[in-house]
Design brief:
Layout: E1 12-15, E2 22-23, H1 25-38, H2 49-54, H3 60-70, H4 77-91, E3 96-97, H5 99-108, E4 114-117, H6 122-131, E5 140-142, H7 156-160, E6 167-171, E7 180-182, H8 188-191
Parallel strand pairs: 1-4, 1-6, 4-5
Antiparallel strand pairs: 2-3, 6-7
Helix pairs in contact: 1-4
Length: about 200
């Protein structure tokens, strides 16, 4: 995989985590499969990979609803998520890094501020960074829990850039499963009151 780095003098870099820096999506796929089998999916059936990857970025409530409808299962979201997350944590030591992106992050972290903006939970994000051996370069990790007025669809990338300075965000938002750059900075009205204080992570 070759990164297409946009030209520009960026003040910092914001990275997505799952499927961008860390190769965790296959682990999420296996965890969802195992969880669904525990909740009644046929033993010889597995989640359609194209369906799974098309749900990248969808909230877990939406994911479980789609899987329940697709495979004819009545699912309690909280219950299946508890099972799925436990399985994922067991698989987490297998997580590797996506070398071109991770290497780029380590390189730019020497000269620019870097941050993580993830739609996942902090209790997963930090272990994922450690498994990918990237926890030493990221002081700031922002999750939906850190974003004020999350119900108003504020994005984690907004809180990472409180000064509205030009940043470069790398995220995996494509069914092609290839990380793609997003160079548009957050808009001033959305970011006016952002703060990163809650997201500061001490170096270890």
């Amino acid at each position: 995989m070759k990164l297409n780095i946009p030209e520009g003098d960026f003040a910092g870099y914001i990275f997505d985590l799952d499927g961008t820096l860390a190769d965790t999506m296959p682990l999420h796929y296996r965890a969802w499969n195992a969880a669904l089998h525990k909740f009644g999916m046929k033993a010889d059936e597995n989640i359609d990979p194209d369906l799974f990857y098309s749900l990248g970025g969808v909230h877990s409530h939406g994911v479980s609803a789609v899987f329940g409808k697709r495979y004819g299962l009545t699912l309690d979201h909280d219950e299946i998520m508890h099972v799925k997350e436990a399985i994922f944590m067991e698989l987490l030591p297998e997580a590797g890094r996506i070398a071109p992106v991770a290497d780029f992050a380590e390189r730019v972290a020497k000269t620019h501020p870097v941050a993580i903006a993830t739609g996942g939970l902090r209790e997963f994000a930090i272990p994922i960074l450690k498994a990918a051996k990237l926890d030493h370069i990221f002081k700031i990790v922002v999750t939906p829990a850190d974003v004020p007025r999350a119900a108003a669809n504020r994005r984690p990338t907004c809180i990472c850039s409180p000064q509205n300075s030009a940043t470069w965000t790398l995220k995996n938002a494509s069914p092609s499963r290839t990380p793609r750059p997003v160079s548009k900075p957050p808009s001033p009205p959305e970011c006016k009151s952002c703060t990163c204080q809650a997201a500061q992570q001490p170096r270890r």
